[in-house]
Design goal:
With 250 residues, the protein is mostly helical. Helix content is 71%, strand content 0%. It is built from 10 helices and no strands. The longest helix is centred in the last third of the chain and has 33 residues, at 210-242. The radius of gyration is 22 Å and the shape is globular. It starts with a helix and ends in an 8-residue tail after the last helix. 32% of the residues are buried.
């Protein structure tokens, strides 16, 4: 079995190397993407989406399918880590096992710094998410910063303190809710007679032009991405910090 697996891996590696050899050189200005795709995005993206940041327009509109499945992959990563690490699946309500003691004592400096830094981090995360239309940022970056604020809270206080304020059940709901929000926007567009993720369908609901509706649609799916990424980071930290000794009741 091991030999068969090794043979399959070698064959796949050779196929990938063969495919890479056919690709254009890195940053080749004569590549098909540079000749046919990039000029169209640069020249038409703002008029079509009213989104000054071309990167955001491409990621959340022109290739919205790809970004949606990237969000789903992030969500699946949290589920897989939970399945691998979780060791108490049959106990519905429990606390962190006693053989993993929480740190006691009052760390005044750490906790004081956390009280000052965490609110700023969360406000900045919202800024990064909302301002991704105009500058570098978006759902992935904002979600990472927001998730890091909860991880910092757990590091400066303890895991049980953070769980009492951001329970695991809510974290898991946010993991799925962000991805569902993204897919739900696409399904809404599809139900209104447009293509899946055809944000122009929202023009009638929002009372704006089709280009502005695409801009609002991009913002909505970016919010979904941010929620999922934030919750996945927190969920992974919960599982790693507890060693899997947590239950779904937390």
């Amino acid at each position: 079995m091991k030999r068969l697996t090794l043979i399959i891996l070698v064959a796949c590696a050779l196929l990938m190397l063969l495919a890479v050899s056919e690709l254009p050189d890195w940053a080749d200005p004569a590549s098909p993407a540079s000749i046919h795709l990039s000029p169209g995005f640069i020249e038409q993206a703002y008029e079509a989406t009213h989104t000054p940041n071309v990167v955001t327009a491409v990621l959340a509109d022109y290739r919205g399918y790809d970004t949606m499945f990237e969000t789903v992959v992030v969500f699946l990563a949290a589920l897989i880590i939970m399945i691998i690490l979780r060791r108490t699946p049959h106990r519905r309500f429990c606390k962190i096992l006693p053989h993993r003691p929480q740190r006691k004592g009052r760390d005044t400096v750490l906790r004081g710094a956390a009280q000052l830094i965490i609110p700023v981090m969360q406000i900045f995360a919202l800024y990064v998410l909302g301002h991704g239309h105009y500058s570098p940022g978006g759902g992935f970056q904002g979600g990472v910063i927001f998730g890091a604020s909860f991880i910092l809270l757990a590091l400066c206080y303890n895991l049980e303190f953070t769980l009492s304020r951001f329970r695991e059940r809510i974290v898991l709901f946010c993991c799925a809710g962000g991805a569902l929000l993204y897919a739900g926007i696409g399904a809404l567009c599809l139900g209104m007679g447009w293509n899946f993720l055809g944000y122009a369908a929202l023009a009638g609901i929002l009372g704006v032009s089709e280009a502005m509706a695409r801009s609002h649609g991009i913002l909505l799916v970016e919010v979904g991405v941010g929620i999922t990424v934030m919750a996945v980071m927190v969920s992974i930290y919960y599982d790693l910090a507890s060693g899997g000794d947590m239950c779904e009741g937390l």
